[in-house]
Amino acid sequence: MLLILSAPGDTHSEAVEQILARRGVPFVHWNQAGFPERDTVSLRYDAGGMKSNSVVMGGEAIDLSRVSTTYVRRHAHPEIRRPANDPRARAYVETEARSILNAAAELNDCRWIPGPMRALHWAGDKAWQLRLAARLGFEIPPTLITNDPAELLEFYREHNGQLVCKALNFPHFPASADGSDNWLFTTQLVAPRDVGYAESIRYCPAIFQAYVPKRLELRITVVGERVFPCEIHSQERARTRHDWRRYDLEHTPHREHALPSDVAMRCIRIVRALGLCYGALDFVLTPDGRYVFLEVNPMGQFLWIEKITGMPISEAICDLLEAAEAGVGGMPSD
Question: Final residue of a domain: which of 210, 234, 269?
């Protein structure tokens, strides 16, 4: 059985599922945000070990021990609304809910795409990504990860104030009063006025990198042995000049990029080295033609690139899922 783990409103998993349905590949979709208020999970053990591992979704019981391949498309936040008047209790319930969700998925002895939960957590570590990228021969920006104000000020002077600041993780804050999600853009320029508040990083470490001049930005999607490079002309609009994630798709050209073969092979190698078979890699192409590695997103989005450029990324993911179901490809649980 093929299990797809996703979150509400995830159009990427919907696109993949449509192709699987067209190909006649059976699958089960588990939107984990329905746990614990709508779905239930039960793990049973006896003296000999695990006896059963099941989830009930919409009244239908699914035996997770029958899962042969798991596609982790997107982590979902458990929907915790009770007790409504006690935020501390809700935080505790969410922690417990996350633990059993991870256990229910992780305990399956199956093939994983992009990789097992533990590998996904480890692969998202930006500090480790930078070290690994440099080992594999990628150029990386001069980088400081710290909560030491003095180190930040020295780094700021070294690079003549031309720094960007990035979060160590992809920050998600509680929803606004209107129910909309709150996200922090991952890259912010460090302005002179920010330096006056350098002491504040003592309480919240961050990543600081020397600003890399851009001709283009690249989102390179690796699916197994296939590489889908997209060039993003972020410098054509002020809104996207420093971070293309401030989407202005109508005015920001996206095109398939002619990626040198040696860079493409290193992209495949870093994804493999992270224990994955999928990754969305971000690069800067400098005005003088250098490819500078920024980071890897183990569950990065791809659908907007597919729609604009026509590159068949969803089809490639389905090929990988079918191969895993046939017993080849994918990542093992350990």
Answer: 210
pLDDT, tens digit (0-9, with 9 covering 90-100), for 26-68? 999 988 888 888 889 998 898 888 788 888 887 788 888 889 9
Q: Does residue 103 share a domain with residue 31?
A: yes
Q: pTM of this prediction?
A: 0.87
Instruction: Judge whether 4 and 27 are in contact, CB under 8 Å.
Output: yes
Let me know if residue 119 belongs to a domain: no
Backbone angles phi, psi at 295, to 5 degrees: -170, 170
Q: b/e string for 22-54 if b means 16 or more Cβ within 10 A? A: eeeeebbbbbbbbbbeebebeeeeeeeeeeebb
Residue 117 lies in a domain: no
Query: How many separate domains does the chain show?
Result: 3
Please state, in angstroms and rounded to a whole number, the distance separating the CA atoms of residues 261 and 106: 35
| Shared domain check, 192 and 219 | no
